[in-house]
Design a protein that fits this description.
With 211 residues, the chain is α+β, with helices and mostly antiparallel strands. The chain has one domain: Restriction Endonuclease, CATH 3.40.91. Strands 3-4-5-6-8-7 form a six-stranded mixed sheet. A two-stranded antiparallel sheet has the order 1-2. It has a two-stranded antiparallel sheet with strand order 9-10. Strand 3 and strand 4 form a beta hairpin. It is globular. About 9% of the residues have low confidence.
């Protein structure tokens, strides 16, 4: 989104901008202010000729670029998930078939995983979000997929495949501290919690100020 906004602004002024100034969005990519995520395909040629999704290193920049004038919470959460996957060393793609899945990721050249991000899954959007993730799972032969939400937790079973809805705060904690999560430390009533701090407040603040 951020790169698209910058590019549209530059193109509208191209009559008086110098050629090197038209390359400004690409300079941001080279400076690691923006990140480009390719579409998943086993063919590098197919990846190269398809559009890439854009994520920002700075949640504030992502928030500032919102055309609605107000924070796009889904986009901020998706950007936050991308930054965390990148921080942990995952290879990252997006999936595009009949539907779309936000992230296809792989760690250490091993197992793939499919992740969809949405603020809240309800009757109006469940079919779209689940079908995009399910299509990606079928393509990769996965039996489990994940939808990261703000605070929803549930399991959806479809044709023998399980889609887990996981609250963002829990997903970030499990990904960051897998050994702590596995041993059951810092758990209360089978729910992971951060001591002395409201978990929802942590996620809400992190959408704007990345940790």
């Amino acid at each position: 989104m951020l790169k698209a906004v910058l590019k549209s602004i530059l193109e509208s002024q191209q009559d008086w901008l110098l050629p090197e100034e038209m390359e400004f969005p690409y300079y941001l990519t080279d400076a690691y202010r923006l990140f480009l995520v390719p579409m998943y395909d086993t063919s590098l040629k197919v990846q190269a000729r398809n559009p890439r999704k854009v994520y920002s290193v700075d949640q504030g920049l992502e928030n500032f670029s919102s055309v609605s004038g107000s924070p796009d919470m889904v986009r901020l959460l998706e950007n936050m998930v991308y930054l965390h996957l990148r921080r942990l060393g995952y290879e990252i793609w997006y999936f595009k078939g009949k539907k779309e899945c936000d992230f296809i990721c792989r760690y250490n050249k091993e197992t793939f995983s499919a992740i969809q991000v949405f603020w809240e899954v309800g009757l109006q959007n469940e079919k779209r979000e689940v079908e995009g993730l399910f299509e990606a799972m079928l393509r990769l032969g996965l039996t489990e997929g994940t939808i990261i939400t703000f605070n929803q937790e549930d399991n959806i079973v479809k044709v023998g495949k399980t889609i887990r809805l996981v609250p963002g705060w829990k997903w970030f904690f499990i990904k960051t501290y897998p050994k702590v999560s596995a041993t059951g430390e810092m758990c209360l009533n089978n729910q992971l919690v951060c001591p002395l701090v409201n978990k929802h407040k942590i996620l809400s603040l992190s959408l704007f100020f990345p940790f």
